[in-house]
Amino acid sequence: METLWFCLIALLWLGYLFLEGFDFGVGMLLPFLGRDNTERRVMINTIGPVWDGNEVWLLVAGGATFAAFPGWYAALFSAAYLPLTLFLLALIGRGVAFEYRGKVDSERWRRVWDAVIFVGSWVAALGVGLIIATTVLGLPIDANGDRVGSPFAAVRLETVLGALAVAGYALVHGAIFIALKTEGEIRDRARRMALTMSPVALLPLVVLLLHVAGVWALAVLPFAGLALWRLWVGREGQAFAAMGLAVAATVTVLFASLYPNVLPSTLDPAYSLTVAGAASSPYTLTVMTWVAAFGTPAVLVYQGWTYWVFRKRIGVRHIPAAH
Amino acid sequence: MDVLELARWQFGITTVYHFLMVPLTIGLSLLVAAMQTAWVRTGDERYYKMTKFWGKLLLINFAMGVVTGIVQEFQFGMAWSAYSRFVGDVFGAPLAMEGLVAFFVESTFLGLWIFGWDKLPKKVHLACAWAFSLATMASAYFILAANSWMQHPVGIEMHDGRPRLTSIWAVLTNNTTLAAFPHTIAGAFAVAATFLVGIGAWHLWKKSDDEGVWRSSLKLGTWVGVVAFGVLAVSGDVQGKLMFEQQPMKMAAAEALCHTEEPAAFSVFAIGDLTRPDCENVKSITVPALLSFLAHNDFTSEVKGIQDLVPLYQEKYGTNYPVDERLGELSGKPIDYVPALPVTYWGFRLMIGFGAISAGLGLLMLWLTRGGRVPQGRWFPITALAGIATPFLANSFGWIFTEMGRQPFVVVPNPSGVDGVWMFTAQAVSASTPGEILTSLIALTATYGLLACVEVYLIRKYVRGGVAGVIPAKTDDGALAFAY
């Protein structure tokens, strides 16, 4: 039962990385792909109806960790306090920015919010990467699960590599998504950008996986290669799906190498939080399993429906002046 | 300041702030869904305009509620990790359910509603508004179930020194939750109602276009406000009676009732130094026997005072904190079982007072604008707009009272529940450094303050813009044209 929940939490992170990954990417690419205000509006509208739903995957991942593994939730979040604070501020900024950007017709107003979206998306993507790398690679925690030492214990070379890995992935994933959802010049530009930057952008991810899991890391490469090949021949939908497989492989490798720990202690392996040690009681896990068994398929259905409703590509011609 | 104090200030500031957006979202979303239903059924353009206008204000407000809600979910683990470990087996479940069952629905269907105006069939689009609105209430239910469990732990057994969940049903049907839910939801409708009344009255006074929109909004707001106040009074009374039973100290503190009285009088107004729990120097205007009625439904029974409750608490829950270096200065020190009396006493009165003002204001506005009349004086719009603040204040004071009133506990012992299940707030914080919490406290407070200015600016702008400011320009094929 604990193992099932460990897998479910990995699945929630997978959903979060796959979905919010591209909306982070869109924000991160905003000034690079959007040459004028209208193009930036097009980019934002590709994620407009869905980014908020994507972000709920994070909240559910957090809430489910609290419910199923209180020890994990308490130790990780309190030990990585300052990085998480920065991450939350970034999420606050970009969330508000999407909603408020178009509410005042002023060039300056929009420029400010564009900057918030850009910075917020970068910081948030780096933050997610840092947190995931931290839980996989561990923290100096004592027997009680409390951090020993500096508030910046979660920020070190290997976790920064994790931050760059997720940010690089989000860039490629976001560019593919824009290529999939737009038309005209911006679509071509996004496609070219995804292809040219991917060798550099995906490098930290590969290095991270090699560091964590050795040769198993290479399992990700065929999927990433498939994505780029399908993008090359102009099949953006397939490229986007292949990126989904690549991120699924990544999450699988990372969490498989973590198991049976949930948060290793870098001080003493005996202090490491394990799946069994950090979990809730069997009854609570059973209740949560029923909730997840009914809730998750419903979420997938209506979120899928949202993507279906807004499946049409959008372009500059759809945007009226002054928005 | 130490970690405990900083973490409490942070929780207080972020939660009170978050709960300014939440009730407006809950109340307004249902009223907007009702307006849209009226439009779909009658085809009357006025209802369309109402839906658009109030819907826009709802969106501006909802965005802020969402982003500040994320902080809420994370800060239990960040700043209150000892609490999270202690209660995780029980407390995490309603939070996770809220995300999975309610918040997913909210955010997805709101996205569909915003962007779906020209893309979805009318009735499907309307259903999205209802799905969103009902999900906000479901959200409130799960969060209140979590909060009520802290006030009145049920459905558990003790295992290895921690409460372990034995019945999720007991947690979700906790009588504390069942009483808190209607009270909180009615409070949310009071907020939305006064919002409609204040802004509607202002537009009438301004002689803005679309007079019908403002008259209908004012009328709707007034009646919703009156009904909400009725529900608030009844559910508040039920809650109070439960509280006398479950948390006698909180209710004694609400009254600053020092000595046991039989029958007990209700204090309307007190002058003097409330900080001392011995009541010397405090003069109070009282209504005889009313407190007995509030507590036990009769005019004769005894209500225990603070000075008589303290020994009972000491006997049951100890006189001193345990010796534990994590408790810092409090380690081994005597436990102060008396909440901050000025806060609980005045919080309780301000909650009731502002709530009554907000309901009365609606009736006053409706009477002043009867039969097409509109008062000309400047006092009219000023009163109407200032009145919008009253239910927000009532909600905030209510929560401040209920959370401060349970101190020094974070999980209050249930007098008829499992032995040993309680936690002092001082034991709940993370082993963080004060610098960490201070950094986030400053960063979050500054960000929230800045965003409050932005939100108020935007709401003002769209309120002034009236109906014309929110009706979209038609485009050739309408694909996501006027999205936000």
TrEMBL record, chain A:
UniProt feature coiled coil, ranges: none
Protein name from the UniProt record: Cytochrome bd-I ubiquinol oxidase subunit 2 apoprotein
GO MF term set: electron transfer activity; metal ion binding; oxidoreductase activity, acting on diphenols and related substances as donors, oxygen as acceptor
Keywords attached to this entry: Cell membrane, Electron transport, Heme, Iron, Membrane, Metal-binding, Transmembrane, Transmembrane helix, Transport
GO CC, alphabetical: cytochrome complex; plasma membrane
Listed GO biological process terms: aerobic electron transport chain
UniProt keyword Zinc-finger, yes or no: no
From TrEMBL, chain B:
One of the record's GO molecular function terms: oxidoreductase activity, acting on diphenols and related substances as donors, oxygen as acceptor
Keywords: Cell membrane, Electron transport, Heme, Iron, Membrane, Metal-binding, Transmembrane, Transmembrane helix, Transport
Subcellular location(s) per record: Cell membrane
Any one Gene Ontology cellular component term annotated for this protein: cytochrome complex
Recorded superkingdom: Bacteria
InterPro entries per UniProt: Cyt-d_ubiquinol_oxidase_su_1
First-listed, main subcellular location of the protein, grouped into a coarse class: membrane
Topology with respect to the bilayer: Multi-pass membrane protein
TM helices/strands, residue ranges: 20-41, 53-71, 91-115, 127-150, 185-205, 217-235, 346-367, 379-401, 437-459
Biological processes per GO annotation: aerobic electron transport chain
Family: Belongs to the cytochrome ubiquinol oxidase subunit 1 family.
PANTHER family from the UniProt entry: CYTOCHROME BD UBIQUINOL OXIDASE SUBUNIT 1, CYTOCHROME D UBIQUINOL OXIDASE
UniProt name for this protein: Cytochrome bd-I ubiquinol oxidase subunit 1 apoprotein
